[in-house]
Amino acid sequence: VSQQLMATEAILNKANKEILTAHLKNCIKNADTDEEREEKVDELALLLEQNGKDTVALAPFMSEEAVGRLAELRAKNGRSIGELLPFAGEEKLGEVALAKVLRGEDVTAMLPFLGDKALGAITKEKLARGESITELLPFLDDSTLREYVKKALGR
């Protein structure tokens, strides 16, 4: 029975590989515009990632939105997202960073790639938890920084 299961799994893996190869050859190759090609690369990369394949090398060819979804998927699965940071959109990256903070994970490497809105939300969350925001200070805008200094001083 075990050998039959392994043989069946091997056949399914081979069929999956052939389907993906055909998809690459036809769908992406036959796309008429750069936008259509990008959509197909996005679709393929996310599909491969969901099947446990490392697709970080495709990030420069993907849309910001898809890279953000890829970062979210990898973060949920405990996989590194460092190489994706320069290619992901600020909004999705902010969501991923806040989710990591809520799980108690370090987001220091993500800070240079986050927008003001995400940095503000992370700062607020860390302060509510009584955690240090020292690593956030160089990235906060002046008004957010002033607001938190006033709160710290009790004014």
Residues in helices, as a percent range: 55-70%
Catalogue the unreliable spans.
none
Radius of gyration: 21 Å
Tally the helices.
6
Structural class: mainly alpha
Backbone shape? elongated
Order of helices and strands: HHHHHH
Strand % is under 5%
- Average pLDDT score: 86
Largest sheet: none
Number of DSSP-assigned strands: 0
End-to-end gap:
72 Å
Give a description of the structure.
The chain has 155 residues and is mainly alpha-helical. It contains 6 helices and no strands. The termini are far apart. The relative contact order is 0.07. The mean pLDDT is 86.
Features:
mainly alpha, 61% helix, elongated
List the helices and strands and how they pair.
Layout: H1 2-28, H2 34-50, H3 64-76, H4 90-102, H5 116-128, H6 142-153
Helix pairs in contact: 1-2, 2-3, 3-4, 4-5
Q: What's the short version?
A:
This protein has 155 residues and is mainly α. The protein contains six helices and no strands.
